[in-house]
Amino acid sequence: MRFENANELFRPGYLPVESGVIDFDDGFRTVCALTRMPGSRAKMIAWWFGWLGGTDQYKIWHPTDHLFSDWEDRTPGSYIGASHLVHEYLGGDDGPVFKLRINFCDPAEFLDATAYAAFDGVAICARTGALDVPVNHSRTIHFVRNTSFGCEMRSRFFLGHLESRDPAAPFTPERAAELRGQRVTSELARRLHQHATEEMGYLAEFLPILYRQVTGDRTF
Q: What percent of the chain has pLDDT over 70?
């Protein structure tokens, strides 16, 4: 799946690749991860991103890979429009520390608004880039649909969408392609797949209890 085909996530059932890496000839890669979350609901996932705070809370989500967490332009209890500023390993501490700015956006920016309004679930959408330079390199959709047992998260990381966050210095298509070839490697995709599978597995384990403890909401 390419980013341009993201609305295929609304189809019932599953797509040909739900966990793994899809490589494209033009240098784009899509990392897919599927996490089944018994006892959780989509509303809990939305709450989690609004509740998640600093480093101590961030490390609950992945005790080894997650190193630092802060937020920018955030309204308490919300995440859309805010940027999550993180330092983390991807797939273990034998690799580099990634310093990232994850800017959460309205799902209507990535997905069909009419289909989303009728969807029994939530989509967490973001543009991700470097923290120390004004460059974005990927787009993310955590597509969470409610099920009879709880919910399931179908994550898609669309790697290779290189764009400058500096409006005075936009990238030409040629420059974006050059950076894509340098940065969007098979090793990055492999590590991201491992990391996403692990961190969402952790979340599935503790979220139902944490949500009820903090909110008092025991409805399913």
A: 100
